[in-house]
Design a protein that fits this description.
CATH topology: Cytochrome p450
Strand content: 5-15%
CATH architecture: Orthogonal Bundle
Strand order of the largest sheet: 3-4-9-6
CATH class: Mainly Alpha
Largest sheet: 4 strands, mixed
Shape: globular
Radius of gyration: 24 Å
Distance between the termini: 44 Å
Bound molecules: protoporphyrin IX containing FE
Length: about 550
């Protein structure tokens, strides 16, 4: 994929104000670090705003003083060194060459890359009240073409915040999200049945091929059941035709989005991409709208017959009366876009590592089994007693931050990072992957060590391997769900899906690699995905000797 497209896709997912960090979005240590960074900026800044609102930059350097590759150098790395699909690794290479802040140009983008937790914290501190990740002008153009309302990705300023204010309470509050638990657990049950079916069909009665593709179906079904309050049948043996069309439309729109953004507007009549992009959006919105309208008709019928209209997220949105119908359509669609392959790829990488790390897998199994003996289905309350489970997911997100780079297009403020001054409308690229893999931030950074997320003594296993210093890291060195008011709105839902799915998979199966010798690398297609299919063996614990059950 073109490097500009890849960069754009990074930034699409990734986008606002540490000063207004809500409790739901950031851990206390993150907020403390945020205030430290703000104090640092205030102290070190010698920028003064004059009466006319212009800024004297004092002794600070500007964007033109930043080191960074020429376009020809970038192209050389992309094409000849084959970093086009390894943008996550490219962050580290460039950091090694230019230090923790550098400039790079990709197609239409002029990026300031920051790759240290301190600098990331400084950008976030100055991002303003209504942060933006990147301007998606082609999405806006589509919405204008169809006269549609703007959703989370196109709305700006207070309008964006109004939408977030409606979405947040039912998505980010732990207590509220628990209402989704039993529904998610049903979907997990279907996923387990599908694993059984696939095993039974495999030659060795154990292997599931392309685990990421299977978990994608799980991710799609799990988030859709909350958003549309309808089962789509993604995990059935025969996936319904409309569901297949829906899945294809999501893929097409996201893929074409990356192509369309890099071509100038005048090429739209000549090249086929814009037309196909519009078709994909039409299909996606059409199916989404149909699902929402169908559910709305059911709710209206319930209300007419004096039955309580109980539902999950859609009922809440429709009944909140704070969003127009058109805003509900687009918002639900955007939640779906953010919520499928993020969760599924994280789960895939988790299983991949556990399959190769018997000790960690057994530690996890022991924990799940001690909290929920005899394969009892875990509840949200049980999850709170599974620190190792959470540590395993965190460690996976550190090694494979599924959104490896985030973005901030800072429009409200001039920004100071280190001893550089940047004008308003500077596009920052926050190199999260590079930071997560930096030895200076994480001891044994390339190793899968869930214990680093446990406080000393939290793991039940005396032979666990944490070493002194393993537990410490700077809070902004690990922000897989982003940070601030613009952070991921689906974080709680994603965690719940992953915790239930992983704990129940562990209750039933011991996971092994199909082939020990093959390691599978990550590649970037916006998200960090496996470069080739991951096949795993799922050995039924009920058939194993009692020691490893
Ligand atoms: C492992 C799972 C997930 C990861 C790692 C993840 C990560 C992220 C990141 C890094 C951002 C950008 C945040 C920022 O700019 O500070 C984001 C935004 C977003 N995520 Fe997630 N996400 C995940 C799951 C989900 C799920 C399940 C949903 C939907 C239910 C979702 C919906 C969204 C939406 C709508 C945005 C844009 C929010 C806005 O711009 O206001 N995500 N996510």
């Amino acid at each position: 994929m073109n490097c500009a497209a890849t960069a754009v896709r990074f930034l699409r997912l990734c986008a606002p104000c540490a000063r207004t960090l809500p409790a739901s979005c950031a851990a206390p240590e993150l907020r403390r670090a945020g205030s430290r960074a703000a104090a640092l900026i205030r102290r070190s800044s010698n920028v003064q705003t004059t009466m006319t609102g212009t800024t004297e930059r004092g002794g600070l350097k500007t964007i033109d003083d930043l080191p960074g590759p020429r376009l020809s150098t970038t192209l050389y790395w992309m094409i000849f060194k084959q970093f086009g699909h390894k943008m996550h690794l490219f962050q580290g290479v460039q950091k090694g060459l230019y230090g923790p802040i550098w400039r790079s140009k990709f197609g239409p983008l002029d990026l300031v890359n920051v790759a240290s937790p301190e600098f990331i914290a400084q950008v976030i501190q100055q991002e303003g009240r209504y942060p933006v990740r990147i301007e998606l002008l082609h999405w806006k153009e589509y919405m204008d073409l169809r006269g549609q309302a703007y959703g989370l990705h196109v709305s700006k300023g207070p309008k964006w915040y109004e939408i977030r204010k409606v979405l947040n309470p039912k998505m980010l509050k732990l207590g509220e999200v628990s209402a989704f638990a039993s529904t998610i657990n049903q979907v997990v049950g279907d996923m387990l049945q599908r694993v059984e079916l696939l095993r039974s069909r495999s030659q060795d009665q154990a292997t599931v091929s392309d685990v990421a593709a299977e978990l994608y179906k799980f991710g799609f079904e799990a988030v859709s059941v909350i958003l549309f309050e309808t089962r789509l049948g993604c995990l059935q043996e025969e996936i319904p035709r409309d569901t297949l069309r829906f899945i294809a439309a999501v893929n097409d729109m996201l893929t074409l989005s990356n192509t369309v953004i890099i071509f100038p507007r005048w090429s739209r009549g000549i090249l086929p991409f814009w037309k196909r992009f519009v078709q994909a959006w039409d299909e996606l919105c059409g199916i989404g709208q149909k699902l929402i309208d169908r559910r709305l008709a059911e709710i209206e019928a319930q209300v007419r017959s004096d039955q309580p209209a109980e539902g999950l997220y859609l009922t809440y949105l429709l009944s909140s009366d704070k969003l127009t119908r058109s805003e509900v359509y687009i918002t639900v669609t955007e939640l779906l876009l953010g919520g499928v392959d993020t969760t599924s790829n994280t789960l895939t990488w988790t299983l991949y590592h556990l399959a190769r790390d018997e000790r960690a897998q057994e530690e996890l199994y022991r924990e799940v089994n001690s909290v929920c003996p005899d394969r009892r289905e875990p509840t949200t309350c049980d999850l709170s007693r599974m620190p190792y489970l959470k540590a395993v997911i965190k460690e996976t997100l550190r090694l494979y931050p599924v959104v490896p780079g985030n973005g901030r297009f800072v429009t409200e403020n001039e920004v100071i990072v280190g001893d550089y001054w940047f004008p308003k409308k500077t596009q920052f690229h926050l190199c999260h992957f590079a930071v997560c893999h930096d030895e200076a931030e994480f001891a044994d950074a390339e190793q899968f060590i869930p214990e680093r997320w446990l406080r000393p003594g939290m793991s039940g296993d005396a032979s666990a391997r944490p070493a002194p210093g393993l537990y410490r890291h700077q809070p902004y060195s690990f922000i897989p769900f982003g940070v601030g008011v613009r952070a991921c709105v689906g974080k709680r839902v994603a965690e719940m899906e992953m915790y239930f799915a992983l704990s129940r998979l562990m209750q039933h199966y011991k996971v092994q690699p199909e082939d020990d010798a093959t390691t599978i690398q990550a590649k970037t297609r916006t998200l960090l995905i496996p470069e080739k299919p991951i096949n795993l063996r799922f050995l039924a614990r009920s058939e194993l000797s009692s020691g490893s059950q």
